[in-house]
Amino acid sequence: MPAERSRSRSPAGPAMASFTLHGIPVSRGIAIGRAHLLAPAALDVKHYLVAEEHLEAEVQRLQQALVQVHKELQTLWLELPKDAPTELGAFIDVHALILSDPMISEAPLDIIRSRHYNAEWALLTQIDELSAQFDEIEDPYLRERKADIQQVAERVLKVLIGSEQTLPTVPGEDGYQAQMIVVAHDISPADMLQFRDRSFIGFVTDVGGQNSHTAIVARSLDIPAAVGMSQASTLVEQDDWIIIDGDAGVVIVNPSALVLEQYRERQSGLQRARKKLNKLKKTPAVTRDGTQITLLANIELPGDCAAAMEAGANGVGLFRSEFLFMGRNSKIPSEDEQFEQYKAAVVAMKGRPVTIRTLDIGADKPLDQTEHTALNPALGLRAIRYCLAEPQIFLTQLRAILRASAFGKLRILIPMLAHAFEIDQSLAMIAQAKAQLREANIKFDEDVDVGAMIEIPAAALALPMFVKRMDFLSIGTNDLIQYTLAIDRVDYEVAHLYNPLHPAVLQLIAMTIAAGHKAGIDVAVCGEMAGDIKLTRLLLGMGLRDFSMHPAQLLAVKQEILNSDMARIVPQTRKIMRAMEPNAIAEAVHQLQLM
Ligand code: PEP
Ligand code: MG
Predict the structure, then answer these.
(1) Whole-number Å distance between alpha carbons of 482 and 490
(2) Rounded to an integer, what distance in angstroms lies between the CA atom of residue 387 and that of residue 104?
(3) CA nearest 366: which of 388, 382, 385, 387?
(4) 456: which of 23, 124, 418, 567 fits an S-S bond (Cβ 3.0–4.6 Å)?
């Protein structure tokens, strides 16, 4: 959506229309370059009816295109660079699976035979039908998988049309042309991989959300990107100058020389800051006055441990194990398969502790798309409630986790606990899993620590029940805020009410930290608050010593810690904890950052 339009002189020379587009930020940083437009092949499709005697030839034309795309995907897979993010291989697999599915490999052939459509038209007809079915799906993550199907169809169309779209490789004489920003309706992760070796510094797409595969790859490649720009691919022209502000989700097309200069300065500032941060990798996280802090990583899959180690994490504070279970049509990974994954994480962390959270399935993380029966899934059968209702699934996971504990330091974390009997049953299940392993003569750590996530207000208000039974606590602020303020954390209509600085939220966090310390057990925060540098000092002032966050946030938080002085922070935090007015709290937190 163009928010402003004016005439200005672009760096390319002649006066060109300058305008700004607003979308969704998916990957941070600033990119400045020239637009390279990738028009979807679908726009060029011809529609015609095929004569009866040519129908089988048309069917074969489509079949050959499908085979060729299969080969292309195989080649992509084989040529995957060694250092490519693990997601990329998985995305290629997903596209290969979609391609072999009868909905793509057979249904369009039937359309050619029954309706006499040409191959391109038949394929698009089928894709349109599938897309409509995907639009009906409520779950935003699954709905976004529609993009994968469209990307596969586009590959087939490219082959049918015989017009592969390529990126220019020759740098221009102005020295900046080599820096290309891809602008497209949508980009498949596999295509992103092809762009990797070229001078590709950012991307902008019309569609997509923060969970789209393409967004995930962009984040893992650390390329500035913005999606959901609605009409970028029609408004932007080839070779237009573009600035992507990946933090704000803003794209400025044909910026004035002044704007460009300002962004170049910001960009160099960011680059300098990053370089500086990298120097902190090995520096211990200690405040100016000597308080030692533990910085842990949140991971989704064992492959993320590399980033955690690279960022200098002291361990893994949250392994969201449910990611091993999702997207498999409810096919639960076997004990051996889980064991291998947990072991891989433990081994990769080289002796640093790995905290594996048991299956937190449900709400916005369903096992599969058919799982939408709960009226209010965030309050329904999720996490430990699901595990206690499915004891075989839980026991299998516990055995797999315990087996991995023989290979390094491992801790078990139980999500969504609220009742004493849930804690007791969880511990009883862990004891049962241990007994089964002992009986089978399988090694595990007998003294493995077991902790509770404090993410339901009831838990934060009944801490003696937890500290008596558990070895450590970890505050899940994402859910704690959702349940305290009664707002669905995935509903954008109430997103403005999601406030970590609400006094009720702050009280619950402070109480949990204090209760843990009093009982002599570790307390971490593993929700998003731990990685927000605006809140680092507030959490330090509340007494937090263990922070767990996405590896990319770790060094910035460490820098904040290194510049902090507990002697100043603590009294100011006490003041904040006494305040009840939002403006006073916000102002005091701001002051805390300036100390
Ligand atoms: C939380 O709720 O804060 C948390 C860390 O867990 P998740 O975001 O996976 O629910
Ligand atoms: Mg949670």
Answers:
(1) 9
(2) 36
(3) 382
(4) 418
Q: Is the dihedral of CA 469, 308, 366, 375 positive or negative?
A: positive
Instruction: Tell me which CATH homologous superfamily contains domain 286-562.
Output: Phosphoenolpyruvate-binding domains (3.20.20.60)
Distance CA 481, CA 502 (A): 9
Q: What is the pLDDT of residue 163?
A: 46
The ligand 1 atom at the shortest distance from the C-alpha of residue 360 is 9
Q: What is the rounded distance in angstroms from the CA atom of residue 28 to the CA atom of residue 1?
A: 21
Q: Are strands 24-27 and 225-227 parallel, antiparallel or unpaired?
A: antiparallel
- For residues 206 and 231, what is the distance between their CA atoms, to the nearest angstrom? 6
DSSP codes of every residue in 253-310: ES--HHHHHHHHHHHHHHHHHHHHHHTTTTS--B-TT--B-EEEEEESSGGGHHHHHH
Cβ atoms of 481 and 505 closer than 8 Å? yes
CATH homologous superfamily for the domain 44-161: PtsI, HPr-binding domain (1.10.274.10)
* pLDDT at position 368: 65
Q: Is 213 among the catalytic positions? A: yes
Place of tokens 């941060």: 277
Two tokens, residue 397: 């996971």
For the CA of 476, the closest atom of ligand 1 is: 3
Q: For tokens 């469209």, what's the residue?
A: 150
Contact between 171 and 26 (Cβ < 8 Å) = no
Residues of the chain with confidence (pLDDT) below 50:
1-10, 12-14, 43, 163-178, 211, 369
- Residue 528 is which amino acid? E
Residue 396, token pair as written in the block = 């299998």
Helix (H, G, I), strand (E, B) or coil at 226: strand
Give the residue from 111, 127, 124, 98 showing the smallest Cα distance to 59: 111
Tokens 């305290």, residue located: 484
Cβ proximity of 416 and 352 under 8 Å: no
Under DSSP, is residue 46 helix (H, G, I), strand (E, B) or coil? coil
Q: What distance in Å separates the CA atoms of residue 457 and residue 479, rounded to the nearest whole number? A: 9
Ligand 1 site, residue 355, Cβ cutoff 6 A: no
The finding on whether 432 has its CB within 6 A of some atom of ligand 1 is: no
Helix or strand run (H / E) with residue 449: strand 449-454
Q: What is the four-CA torsion angle of 360, 365, 367, 371, rounded to 10 degrees? A: 120
Say how far apart CA 535 and CA 506 lie, in whole Å: 11
CB 322 less than 6 A from any atom of ligand 1: no
Fold exhibited by the domain 19-41+167-257: Glucose Oxidase; domain 1 (3.50.30)
Residue pointed to by tokens 């051996």:
336
Phi/psi at 362 (5° precision): 110, 180
Residue 229 has which token pair?
């720009």
Q: Give the global pTM.
A: 0.67
Among candidate residues 186, 146, 145, 239, the one with its CA nearest the CA of residue 43: 186
Beta strands in 168-207 (DSSP E): 180-184, 200-205
Instruction: List helix spans (H) across 162-256.
Output: 189-195, 213-221, 232-235
Domain ranges (residues) in the chain? 19-41+167-257, 44-161, 286-562
Tell me what pLDDT residue 212 has. Answer: 55
Structure tokens, 466: 């937890």
Using a CB cutoff of 5 Å, list residues around ligand 2, an ion: 455, 476, 479
